[in-house]
Design goal:
The protein has about 100 residues and is mainly β. The protein has one domain: 2Fe-2S iron-sulphur cluster binding domain, sarcosine oxidase, alpha subunit, N-terminal domain (Ubiquitin-like (UB roll)), CATH 3.10.20.440. It contains one helix and five strands. Strands 2-1-5-3-4 form a five-stranded mixed sheet, covered by helices on one side. The chain is globular, with a radius of gyration of 16 Å. The protein starts with 16 loop residues before the first strand and ends in a 5-residue tail after the last strand. The mean pLDDT is about 90. Bound molecules: FE2/S2 (inorganic) cluster.
Length: about 100
């Protein structure tokens, strides 16, 4: 680490803690992070393919739909684009 001021600490501060529901289970998240990030951190299941193999977010920028779930009743919501908010209800077809 240099001390000449050309480098600076850029790690973002985490937001306030919130709890979302994923397939009926509480999942902790922080404001400012996406629902997909919170689900990945919690090890939650995403969609499964026709063979039953688990899928997971791929692009994290809204183009692949691998992270799609029902969010507060809205079908096929790309969870990588949705910031976590207290009390959100997420339902995935990946639940076993
Ligand atoms: S991870 Fe690709 S659309 Fe969300």
């Amino acid at each position: 680490m240099t001390t000449d001021g050309s480098w600076r600490h850029t790690a973002p501060e985490r937001g306030d803690a919130v709890t979302i529901s994923v397939d009926g289970e509480p999942v902790r998240a922080c404001t400012g992070e996406t629902v997909a990030a919170a689900m990945l951190a919690a090890g939650a299941a995403f969609e499964r393919d026709r063979s039953g193999a688990p899928r997971a977010p791929l692009c994290n920028m809204g183009t692949c739909f691998e992270c799609a779930a029902t969010v507060d009743g809205r079908l096929l919501t790309r969870t990588c684009l949705i910031p976590a908010r207290e009390g959100m209800v997420i339902e995935t077809p990946g639940r076993l």
